[in-house]
């Protein structure tokens, strides 16, 4: 637990939330700034700044909980799909520095647009980058 972490406060019960699911290592609750109807956050109970610092067991528990919630939001909210998103670092839109996964239900005509607009890349650059990562 981190003393100044909003999500640790939610885990501890000192900050109210609309919790919808949990397992031994993770909880899921409604995002109070929803991108779409049904937007959830799934967090490990243990504090870590982002997924790079999370214990593998915590990431597994959070991911499995998120997986079940994707099915739930599609079935119960009649969503057409869902995005699963983890932001790592302020420049990647992370605003709460506690590992979390966004489960964002998607609807055919919802207004959400991510800033990424896929365009074809340079295949040589892609191959060179792949080599750097191997």
Silhouette:
globular
Please give the radius of gyration in angstroms. 16 Å
CATH H-level superfamily: HIT-like
> Number of DSSP strands?
5
Task: State the share of residues found in helices, binned by percent.
Answer: 25-40%
How would you characterize the overall build of this protein?
With 134 residues, this protein is an alpha+beta fold. The chain has a single domain, classed as HIT family, subunit A (2-Layer Sandwich). It has helices at 6-12, 56-76, 123-133; strands at residues 19-22, 26-30, 40-44, 81-85, 101-106. A five-stranded antiparallel beta sheet has the order 1-2-3-5-4, with helices on one face. A hairpin with a 3-residue loop joins strand 1 (19-22) and strand 2. The protein starts with 5 loop residues before the first helix and ends with a helix.
In short:
By secondary structure, this protein is an alpha+beta fold. Helix content is 29%, strand content 19%. The model has no long low-confidence stretch (mean pLDDT 92).
Write the layout of secondary structure elements.
Layout: H1 6-12, E1 19-22, E2 26-30, E3 40-44, H2 56-76, E4 81-85, E5 101-106, H3 123-133
Antiparallel strand pairs: 1-2, 2-3, 3-5, 4-5
What labels would you give this structure?
134 residues, alpha+beta, five-stranded antiparallel β-sheet, 3 helices, globular
